[in-house]
Amino acid sequence: MGARYWLWHCYSGFYVNSRIKIQEYNEGGIVSPVTNEGERYGLGIGVGYAYMLSSHINIEAGWGLWSGLATYKKYSCPRCGDVLEQGKKVFLLPDTLNIAISYIF
Questions:
Q1: What does the pLDDT look like over 53-81, one tens digit per residue?
Q2: Does pTM top 0.85 for this prediction?
């Protein structure tokens, strides 16, 4: 869930956006046997530019970051279930990188 605010004209020019994000993740186990899983909760912010091609079609480019709190468990291997570490930590991660064509009704 999020919102976008255009600095000049609605649906055209530079914009800033924000969003609330919840993620359940499981990573690792391919290159290294160590697996990490948990949940992330946070807020994201982003910037971008929308260029009007016509009165109904825009091309957009933007990027964003998100930060928040992660609860995690780190396992020694994907199948054995031996917990190496668990806890909570603060994170900062890339969130979006987009190029899009939009139709405005």
A1: 998 999 999 999 999 999 999 998 877 77
A2: no
Strands (E), the chain: 2-6, 13-28, 35-52, 57-75, 83-103
CA distance 67 to 70: 9
How far does Cα 91 stand from its chain's mean position?
12
Residue appearing with tokens 């091609």: 53
- Give how far Cα 56 sits from Cα of 7, 52, 61, 75, 104, Å: 19, 8, 17, 51, 5
**How would you class 85 by CB atoms within 10 Å of its CB: exposed for 0-12, middle for 13-18, buried for 19 or more?**
exposed
Q: How far apart are CA 27 and CA 94, in angstroms?
A: 16
